[in-house]
From TrEMBL:
This is RING finger protein 224. InterPro entries: RING_finger_domain (IPR053122), Znf-RING_euk (IPR027370), Znf_RING (IPR001841), Znf_RING/FYVE/PHD (IPR013083), Znf_RING_CS (IPR017907). The keyword Metal-binding applies. PROSITE patterns: ZF_RING_1 (PS00518), ZF_RING_2 (PS50089). GO terms for molecular function: zinc ion binding. Residues 4-51 form the RING-type domain. Signal peptide: none annotated. SUPFAM superfamilies: RING/U-box. Pfam families: zf-RING_UBOX. Keywords: Metal-binding, Zinc, Zinc-finger. Residues 75-100 are annotated as: Disordered. Coiled coil: none annotated.
Amino acid sequence: RLECIICYCSYDLSGRPPRRLYCGHRFCQACLRRLDAVANEQRWTPCRQCRQNTPTPRGGVAMLDLDLPTFLAVKADKEQPRPAGRARPDLATKGSGKEKVVTQQPLGLCQDAVPPGPLPRRGCCRPCLCC
């Protein structure tokens, strides 16, 4: 998911980057700023999913770790935006136009039987390269 589950806004690279709490849940930085609270002379950020508190770093919620996989997905989406409602264009060629891009598993790897080898079969109806 590339959106915050609190505000349902899409993550972005500046005002709403995905930040990870100690419990592992992620929210946008803007929502975490609103959740930041003081308790027992310490600043805490409570998780909206599991209610576990994360101590807020000295610099505020902007100093919490980025949720790196989500951040990289947002960055990749920003670098190669796709029109809404349309799938990615099918790339028929790669580079100079001579090589085809592989978009699915080549035929013959698991569908066709291969000669029996020295390895025992594991739950397959016939020997194949994946077993």
